[in-house]
Amino acid sequence: MPVLAPSPPAVLRALGLLPLFALVGLASACGGKAGDGADGADGADGADGGDAGSVSYYADIQPMLGQHCVRCHSDGGLGPADFTDPDVVQALAPAMRAAIDEGRMPPAAADPSCQDYVGSEALTMPQAERDLFGLWVDGGLVMGDPSEAPAVEPVARELKNPDLVLTLQAPYTPAFADSENPGNEYRCFVLDPEEFGGKYITAMAPTIDAETIVHHAVLFTVDRGSLDDRYLGDSGWDCINGRGGDSTDGMLGAWAPGMLPIEFPEGTGMELPADKLLVLQMHYFYNGAAADGVSDQSGYAFNFVDSVTKPVIMAPLGSYSFTIPAGDPDHTHTESFENTYVPLNVLGIFPHMHKLGRRFDARLIHSDGSETCLVSGDYDFDNQMTYQFKEPVEFAIGDEVRFECNWDNSEGDSAVGFGERTDQEMCYFFTLVSP
Ligand code: HEC
Q1: Residue 10 pLDDT greater than 60, yes or no
Q2: How crowded is residue 225: how many other Cβ atoms within 10 Å of its Cβ?
Q3: How far is the CA of 106 from the centre of ligand 1 (A)?
Q4: Which of 12, 67, 73 to mutate to test the pocket of ligand 1 (most atoms within 8 A of CB)?
Q5: Whose CA is nearest to atom 29 of ligand 1?
Q6: Long-range contacts, stretch 417-424, CB < 8 angstroms, 24+ apart
Q7: Peptide bond before 146: cis, by omega within 30 degrees of 0?
Q8: Is the per-residue pLDDT at 228 higher than 90?
Q9: Residues 115, 118, 124, 127: is their CA dihedral positive or negative?
Q10: 36 or 400, which is more confident?
């Protein structure tokens, strides 16, 4: 049995976390790994058992948590508990192990072995590192020596010298009043780029204010004339369904914790037309008492230039023609589209479905039959992101892009088709391309 010191309930009570961890954490702590083994999740059993004793907190676990967990699980972060505190990590180790082994944590992100993207090192966790945590638990939670801790260089998550930072006009305090989505609120706010309209965005990243409650954010454009007074006030509007104004063709990008700033290659940039306003859709999340009464004034930061040699376009690659049958737990829709226009570079991709979305996959089929994977992974509506490729991918004339969406409608008693509302579905890959 793993050694638990200090006893988990005491630590959890101290942290005010008992309700959240009670089921998952303590259940797995008591069950231990020698128990019934019903879920068979102990990947580290057997083979490397001999290494267990050599894994230590300072040398191995602290840096691993720093890479994959601490951006959410630290003081004032989105996730519960502070994983920078070694006592907390020891106490919660069985729950953390279960979350890692069962694939719940870190939250789903695209597979970098399909196409590598900026920030993949932090957003995904290789199996060897997952196993390491189990080995540490099995080895008796050895702490080791603080001097063994490797030096970790901090990663810049915000733009260094932005030309423009637009924030919500006033702090907003979510009410979390949507009974259909308990603990979640989707709120939209207008940001006016004013004299920057007509320039080209060369880099962008959100400025997150209240990390405790900001789960993810989506940025899009709408026509200036299309929003009436209901939308223009300081406190935004509830927008899980209607976003107001026009639709998906104005998507600029989606961000989730861990994603690094989007930076376009030298000489390229995305036009922000002068007749557009920006709308920032914030997904707020209630993770317990720490979120009570917290207000947020997040925003977005940009760098601009007046002109570019190669404009970047957010091309909406998507499908309207699918029907997900009632009760179907595993429905896949595949479509393809041939490039008959101009040779393009694909710089990044933002997969988008609604709540039934489970998996996405997009790849290029070249005219010689070979394939280049663009993006592939498990989908989570509450954790959408734009994946910016480390290297642009060539989409030549005659190449085909084949994209696939997979949904789970097992709970649904009616068929679901395309639509903007969250009880309808989408299958989109917003694709950053430049000629
Ligand atoms: C992007 C933010 C984020 C990252 C990164 C993250 N977590 Fe979480 N975690 C959350 C949030 C939010 C919750 C509470 C809601 C939930 O369960 O999704 C949570 C809940 C948990 C829970 C309790 C619920 C459960 O599913 O067992 C554990 C344990 C946990 N995280 C461990 C980890 C570990 C270990 C890592 C790193 C390997 C990690 N988390 C990385 C956001 C994150």
Answers
A1: no
A2: 9
A3: 6
A4: 73
A5: 96
A6: 417/322, 417/323, 417/324, 418/319, 418/320, 418/321, 418/322, 420/241, 420/242, 420/243, 420/247, 420/248, 421/241, 421/242, 422/240, 422/241, 422/354, 422/355, 423/354, 423/355, 424/354
A7: no
A8: no
A9: positive
A10: 400
434 Cα–ligand 1 center, Å: 36
- Which tokens go with 132? 């390491």
Report CA-CA distances (Å) from 387 to 127, 173, 195, 201, 260.
21, 29, 29, 17, 9
At residue 180, the pLDDT reads 84
List the residue whose alpha carbon is closest to atom 14 of ligand 1: 79
Q: How many residues does the chain have?
A: 435
Tokens of 434: 């430049």
What is the atom index within ligand 1 of the atom nearest the CA of 285?
12
Looking at ligand 1, which residue's alpha carbon is closest to its atom 33?
Answer: 105
Reported as a pLDDT band with limits 50, 70 and 90, residue 52 is low
Backbone angles phi, psi at 322, to 5 degrees: -140, 155
Closest C-alpha residue for ligand 1 atom 1:
257
Q: Please say if the pLDDT value at position 39 is more than 50.
A: no
Kindly report the protein residue whose alpha carbon is nearest to atom 27 of ligand 1: 99
Atom of ligand 1 nearest to the CA of 383: 1
The pLDDT of residue 2 is: 33
Tell me the pLDDT of the chain averaged across its residues.
86
Q: How far is the CA of 360 from the centre of ligand 1 (A)?
A: 22
Residue 14 in this model has a pLDDT that exceeds 90: no
Six-digit token pair at 149? 């801790």
User: What's the confidence (pLDDT) of residue 247?
Assistant: 58
Q: Are 139 and 53 in contact (CB under 8 A)?
A: yes
Relative to the CA of 71, which ligand 1 atom is closest? Answer: 5
Residue nearest to atom 9 of ligand 1 (CA): 79
Give residue ranges with CB within 6 A of ligand 1: 24, 68-69, 71-73, 78-80, 95-96, 98-100, 104-107, 125, 257-258, 287
Structure confidence at residue 243 as a pLDDT band (50, 70, 90):
low
